[in-house]
Amino acid sequence: MVITLLSDFGDVYPASMKGVILGINPDANIVDISHSIPRHDIHTGAFVLMTSAKYFPTDTVHIAVVDPGVGTNRRPVAARAQSPDGDIHYFIGPDNGLLIPAARSIGKFEVYEIINRKLFRSNVSSVFHGKDIFAPIGAHISKGLGIEEVGTEIFDFIDLDFGTGIKTADSFLGKVIFLDPFGNIVTNISSRGVELNFGDILEIEGIKVPFLNSYGFCREGEPLTLIGSHGFLEIAVNQGNAARFFDKKIDDEIIAYLSFSKACT
Amino acid sequence: MVITLLSDFGDVYPASMKGVILGINPDANIVDISHSIPRHDIHTGAFVLMTSAKYFPTDTVHIAVVDPGVGTNRRPVAARAQSPDGDIHYFIGPDNGLLIPAARSIGKFEVYEIINRKLFRSNVSSVFHGKDIFAPIGAHISKGLGIEEVGTEIFDFIDLDFGTGIKTADSFLGKVIFLDPFGNIVTNISSRGVELNFGDILEIEGIKVPFLNSYGFCREGEPLTLIGSHGFLEIAVNQGNAARFFDKKIDDEIIAYLSFSKACT
Amino acid sequence: MVITLLSDFGDVYPASMKGVILGINPDANIVDISHSIPRHDIHTGAFVLMTSAKYFPTDTVHIAVVDPGVGTNRRPVAARAQSPDGDIHYFIGPDNGLLIPAARSIGKFEVYEIINRKLFRSNVSSVFHGKDIFAPIGAHISKGLGIEEVGTEIFDFIDLDFGTGIKTADSFLGKVIFLDPFGNIVTNISSRGVELNFGDILEIEGIKVPFLNSYGFCREGEPLTLIGSHGFLEIAVNQGNAARFFDKKIDDEIIAYLSFSKACT
């Protein structure tokens, strides 16, 4: 069974979680999604989890820990999500919104508060629930434990929503929801509403930016827009850093005016 | 069987070790503890190994390479440690102290000089014993080779000791033994001697610092002390970097005066 | 079966490739060679693949993606290489030279253009062939699919060659082909032509540099030359950074004059 890990731990700490998991389920196939989420950045962690988890096979358990409230009264939670095709994904982590966009993107989901202390490690550190609560819970679920065994279903879990960009007669309005490691700007404007053709021109911050299929179609250092691999409208700079080029950070507004299409010229 | 790797190699070189291991034991489950130990920092490597190895299941083989003396006359060694519960951990690496705190923290241990060249790769590079000696030795042990087959037991191995902080009538005296990736200051004052209650106040460098259960109980940017996940007294700054806040580095002295407890106010 | 991954993706994106692979071949043993190749640096990616792949066991599938031309008309390719000992290695990636030095270093090899779209993911992103083409092709080959099933053999693939340093009567002439994470300078002067003895002196950029077996034989901060673990003449600085010391970057010329040997003094 596959178990993925996502955290803001950086180096060193994920290994303890892996040791605990392998002690409970020696057959777990552990895959790191990322341990370089900016520290305490629940928003970025939720985006990365949402856009990565869906590529894993059914029955994968995703343990995610971006957890500024560890040791306070925030609840530990586990979610079970089912895709329209019947694939099941489990999500284990803190009740701070981190898991919810990923669970929702899979399909129908239910959330349980984790309260069954018999499944925890014997000494729960107040600062490392990743190792002492989330890792053992995830390992037990990967061995077949039913999610209803971990606690009680809840409905007042903390939600997190990236919003949905909108299309007007002459523009797209959205916001930055992710800056990838290359500086590409991912917006919340879904590919489904974007009916642009190769070479159409958008105007962003006063700059005319072509809509292309990929980076290599414009010159080095030139900006472009495209439908990125996450399924959203992205703004990029070929072999450059769009976040710096346009001076954008997470949650900044993006307005892209339809300028003129190549077909009209 | 689980094999962990720890090194100061950064990127690229660990992959060659993994290739060699999988060539000998295709069933090895290889887990990285860290490859970002500061270069040649045996002390930090030993601390990370000591605090991570114990979470892995019995019969795990830990290969650790922070090895400024590679290719000189420093000896390659293998250790076998047994916990009070009967768990066995193996440690493979250079004889420079790196492995010893981890082996000792498990329990009783014995150390062997690695001399059986039949177990090495055929061409031993003088600069990469990780690939040519430690990886194959670890892979063979993970397949069941007895540690006595690798060489001869020795008793004059190089030791490394983090010391033990002490408690006086009105203070704790210790030193910095680790700065974690978040800048948290880990001292060598063991949790066993620390009988503090939530809200008790310590005075460190003239600053009054509360003893709390976790980071989230004080405001952002404020310092606190706590028992960290490693089992030692730690000094942290909520969402900040304690090493910079207190200007501390490894081996610096830490004096924490008992100020007054909440119970007295 | 082992599948290795190499890319310039940094964080986050490799996880999607792993999810896709495990969905096709749940028994794949995935090993990261590196995801920190400098962005779009095909040359460095090719060197790292060439010097790492050979340590993996027979039938390993190496998926490598440093791909500035993704989404343009550059072809996806798969190569099958056989060593003199009969070991087989597969290489999957873009047709830009990235795979060829590695395939050639194994032995005889053949290259196929990947055209069998039935093996791709159903929606191929124009910017992430790693996930949608290379990962599924690699996973299918790791399950036993014959390479001739992926497409058509080609002979006009893009090649990449590191050249071969030469030895004159009184010097070695070569160039920098890799700077490792420690700043060691790897040249294209093969160990086979280097008949130097411990303590011989080379003169590089006017500085007398001893030929030694390993870093620890000279003082901290002093330069040395050695045969590195890659099998080439390397220039290093003990506990320092040779690339900065000699101000060298990839492709820079290296001239090392034979100064005088210890035997003559």
Summary of the model, kept short:
With 265 residues, chain A is of the alpha+beta class. The relative contact order of chain A is 0.13.
The backbone outline of chain A, from C-alpha atoms, is elongated
Most extensive chain-chain interface: A-B, 26 and 30 residues
Name the CATH superfamily assignment of the largest domain in chain A.
S-adenosyl-l-methionine hydroxide adenosyltransferase, N-terminal
- The SSE string of chain A, one letter per element, is EHEHEEEHEHEEEEEEEEHE
Please identify the oligomeric state.
homotrimer
Q: Can you give the mean pLDDT of chain A?
A: 92
Overall CATH class of the largest domain in chain A: Alpha Beta
Main β-sheet of chain A: number of strands, strand sense, barrel status?
Answer: 8 strands, antiparallel
- Give the helix/strand class of chain A: alpha+beta
Number of strands of chain A: 15
C-alpha end-to-end distance of chain A: 55 Å
Number of domains of chain A: 2
- The CATH architecture of the largest domain in chain A is 3-Layer(aba) Sandwich
Strand-residue fraction of chain A? 25-35%
Query: Count of helices of chain A?
Result: 5
Low-confidence stretches of chain A: none
CATH topology of the largest domain in chain A: Rossmann fold
The radius of gyration computed from the alpha-carbon positions of chain A, rounded to a whole number of angstroms, is 21 Å
Indicate the percent of residues in helices of chain A: 10-25%
